[in-house]
Amino acid sequence: MKFQNSHKFIGLCLIALLSFSCQKEIAEGSKANTPTEAYQMLFTAVKAKDGEKTKQIMSKNTLLLAEFEAQRQKQTIEKILENGFLATTFSNTMPQIRDERVKDEFGVVEVYNQRDGKWDDTFFINEDGGWKLAVGDVLKNTYKLPGKSKAQLEKEATNSSVNNIILSAPHTNANVSSNKNSNIRTVEVVPEPPPNNTKTPKDKGKND
What we know:
The chain is of the alpha+beta class.
């Protein structure tokens, strides 16, 4: 009888150990190893309408922001977080992700915003061993951007090329204007007037 009881006890211990091990693997698996992986996990959780998993990808400051907005709007936190604080999650399929930049505990990726037709910088912070969305940290001014985005560098390169073309164009006056709501720069090139070699009657009289 004692032998059977000891076997039952050992069996229960093994079950408990296996259960703890599984829970630990699940907890570790829920942590994103990179900002790119964090966005992918967030997008998947939003599309699955899984509020708990969505919360797991939020930094502490972002969750505090969600709680504040929930109280202000008289909504649940789940309702505030249903789109993950991001416009890119409105896409039906996983959007394009590029240009992952990481410095210290701060990370960022560019995600293509299909609705607005542009690349959005999406900010993450490494917190409690995993990457999490850092919207609250950005608003709190505790986030440090790890370098310029690819979209910004491309824009600067385009502007530099336009300026070089203007400066190298001979005998022209150029007026450059830009639209605040777009990245398009309009260049109006005005040819210089030809030199005036025609003498007036008054000038002729003087030379004669």
